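Progress narrative, work stream C.
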Amino acid sequence: MAEMDGQTEIERKLAEQEAAEASRREIEKQAWPPEPGAPMTTEQARIVEPPRRRSLLEQWKDRGGVLGGLAAAVIFVLKVVAPVLSLLVKFLFVFKTVLITFGSMALSMWFYSTRFGWAFAVGIVLLIFVHESGHATASRIKGLKVGPMVFVPFMGAFVTSSGVSRTLEMDAFIGIMGPVFGTIAGIVCVILGFVTHQPVFFGLAYFNFFMNLFNLTPAVPLDGAWIAPLFSPKLLAFGAVLMLFLGFMNPLIWILGLLSLPRVIAGWKADPATQPYYRVSNAARWKYGFAYLGLIALLAFGMVVTHIA
């Protein structure tokens, strides 16, 4: 009798399993997935989203006690504090860029103010900012990532860029756009000088024209050093000799000259036949040559006009 009862119990469990399997197959035969917003049965929900495996921390939390309390605290940190810290890190990264740019700007203004007064110092730094914005804008046009703008008192400023593979023509475009923006800013200063009759604007315009004209010198690390190699990379060596003499005006130039020696040597050894970076079309040479000489003439004329004014 007990054996028969055991068989009956086994048969009942087998029948329940077969019924459950049949029910599951019936659900799978239905139109799937359900209509958006339509209520789902428990079985449908299990098929759509299988139960998530509970983590070890969640298992400890359910046990309670000291270990459960520590697990609950860790879970809270991961779910609440960690996202906040991530946002804070991102904010600090953006703030770091702003701090470097505007902090170095303020420092440069203070240094220039000790020599020329605050009005002229603010104008000088803003003109340098416009010049460097030309480089930054050109870099973005070419799809490069631009770093923070850093100002160095009595040396100007610089902005770094990185990204896609570069060519000499691309670097020439980035290099010449600084003086282009600077020339426009100088013309604006001249107009403001004639409109307001304030000598400070003519002084800023004269300084700006001179600064941008000097930057077109074919010497590393000036902007002209990105344009001159279009015609011959060996011109960088000529610029290095010129920087040697300019160093007597500002000894920091000698330091920059030493740091730029690897690029000067690379330009002297350059072979366009084997180095794609130095390959330039004749059309590009004519285009940048005309722009280069035109800028030099315009900046020199601007210096004459503002000197007379």
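Work stream C, second folded protein:
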Amino acid sequence: MEFPATPPDRPLEIHHSPDALAGLGPAYLAIGVFDGGQLGHRAVIGRAVDDARREPGAAAVVVTFDPHPLKVIRPEAAPRLLTSTRHKFQYFAGLGATHCLALPFDAAFAVTAPEDFITALASAARPLREICVGFNWTFGRAGAGNLDLLTRLGERHGFAVVGLPSVAVDGQTVSSTLIRQAVEAGDLARAARYLGREFTILGTVVAGQQLGRQLGYPTANLAAHNEQFPPNGVYAVEAEWRGGKYPGVVNLGFRPTVAAPGGERLLELHLFDFDREIYGEDVEVSFRRFLRAERKFANVEELRAQIGRDVESGRRCHSETGKI
């Protein structure tokens, strides 16, 4: 089951207060944390987008929370994020949402009564037409709000409520937890089935030691915005930058051949036949195929030779997929 991305009619507008709903016209809201943008999330957002498009002048608004609520409520239980808030904005826009209400989540917000949270949205919107959620979504203080309460509040305030069932793939209910487990285990094919797309990492290009350039294979070092990574190693990838897509390979790990012990984990991207300065730019990396595990080489010359083989393996992978 796949929900193809739909190019937005206009760039996603970001808001941080319910008051912003007042100027948007009839509002159709999709509400959730939406970490990962998996198939269930895409179904909820897609329903709000489709319903909004049926009414001239209506706004499809994704309502989410920053940071992840568990980072405030139970930080010891907070999951490693599949997508940062910044990354979410990209896939919200790709699904056709016109606006995002990214609500700051702090200790004070965490104790908001569920009725007060929904009333604030309904009071600000002109008008609120619909709220779309997953059927098991909970909200408000101690998660006291649920679909039944939301339905009653909809009747009180005059908006429709859509509670969508979970999505199942391979007999499993799709969840962000299952995707994290698949990514951590290196089962990128399973993660992709749950996501409805390939697993991606969004990162900002930062200055490195220029070692790749010295070896003849220049790399862009990415400071990742997400927190969940696949196992260390070399992968065939496709990078998206400024709307263009570029094949390449990524080395994820600690560079044991050249790094000092205890060094930081690095995400180094080499793009084939690419010669542009992109420091400070955001790049989204789609993981296509695992090529080999990270290992330590006897010297830099052995490392250089292996990188050459990795690049050839990556080129063959992209040639076989036929996607680039």
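Residues 199-319 form a domain with the Elongation Factor Tu (Ef-tu); domain 3 fold (CATH 2.40.30.30). No further action is required on this item.
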